[in-house]
Amino acid sequence: MKRILVGVDGSPEAALAAEKAADLAQATGAKLQLVYVVPSRPPPGPAEYVVENERWELVERNYAAALLRQLEIQIRREGVEIDTATASGRVAESLADRAAKEGFDLVVVGHRGRGGVRRALLGSVADRLLQISSRPVLVVR
User: Fold this and answer.
1) Which single residue of 6, 9, 42, 74 could bond 21 by disulfide (Cβ 3.0 to 4.6 Å)?
2) Does residue 5 carry a pLDDT above 80?
């Protein structure tokens, strides 16, 4: 294993997934990439919504940068190279596309453990990623 992609979102489950991925990277000599995906927003309406949408995107990107810096420090392991990136779009699809296009050997994500009704209503990035990824996926609980 040479490269591991880790999807993070600021949740405790994502931090646990990043920790597990760092342990795997250290054991196998793999490189890690932590990725925060800024979720898609509905298309803007009138002009005042365009400004609000741009502000929201800026806030999300600033949050992503701070989160990625914090996680990079938290999961640092001797001998493990860590890279960070921010993407945008549908989360599961963005992670699956990046993993396939950039040749990652494994995708690691956390799972929030929602019940059946909440998962049906809100969806699950981990569940969707398992369905669409052409690369192996490790879901950490």
Assistant:
1) 6
2) yes
